[in-house]
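Support case: zinc ion complex. Customer-provided input:
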Amino acid sequence: MRPFDAQARAQYTVVAAVTALILYLHLTTVFCVRVAMPRWILLLFNLGPVLVLVNYYLACFTDPGSPSPNYEPPPQTTALLIPIIDSTTDINSPSSSIHLTSSAYLQQQQDPFNESSTADRTTPFCHKCNAFKPPRTHHCSKSKRCILRMDHFCFLAGTCIGYANQAHFVRFLVWTTWACWALVGVYILRLETVFSAMVYGRSDGIPVGDGEVVVIGMNLAILTPVVSMVSMLCWNQLDLLVCNKTTIESINAMPTRAYRYKSGNFDLRENVWDLRSWIRNVEQVMGPKWSLWLVPDMRCVFHHGSLRKRNEDCVWLMEGHWFPISDELRERLEGKLNAK
Ligand SMILES: [Zn+2]
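Agent response - structure generated as follows:
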């Protein structure tokens, strides 16, 4: 259990505020806004906030995942080959004499007369955690630790979004966007009936309740910035999923740097993680079954702390410590390797 520190307190405060806002918007709509709608739409309408809250709590309280304390980069002589040729190699196997431990690496870096020290500078190493960083891992200054496939630190969730909780976060955003637009639709429909009753004197609709227009006005004022922000975030996350990029990678062009470590001197200025198939890219985060992409994944509640296997296609030497590359890039790199 995480100690109840300042960050945990801040997270609980944010979670309570977001929960209160969602419940306020939903309950005021249910009890104050008089809209007649078919039962099945009513069911979907009430299911919205449940899906939003379940995915929100899963995103907030699932550990985003940190590198294993035993993680060491693959031996340098075979580092290039591992992701490209041999997907079954155990990267922890002591097959090379230059397999460095993190303390040996630090010593080597500090020794100016050590010839290999300059060659090793591209090896991702976190000087705050004093440990090697697997590809796509980033040190989070707020969480004060390295996060596997870190996307960003989310103030809305009060935690880092990384390898193990990004799927929950994406589901939360998709369902929130849907629920917000559903609310806006309900308010516009009701306002249209209310104004036609006032202007044209129609009395066929449900009579206007006490304070109903005020509640709709207040909720619309709250929803306008919320729906704009959430829709943009959702669109951004879906765009990144399709391209197989994290927010950090899209800002820093990190794939180039991350890949240079395992590809020696090959200077690849492209997104090496793009599998050239948007479905495979999305699968890497959301899971192999498209029919379950938007269904809350409760398995982590029962297996808390364990990172689950997501995609059989991926090269899961160690979960979250390595990611596959496309066949096209593999062939190109093999060609370069053979030409050397
Ligand atoms: Zn770190």
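Residues 126, 128-129, 139, 145-146 surround zinc ion (CB under 6 Å).

Case will auto-close in a few days if no follow-up is received.
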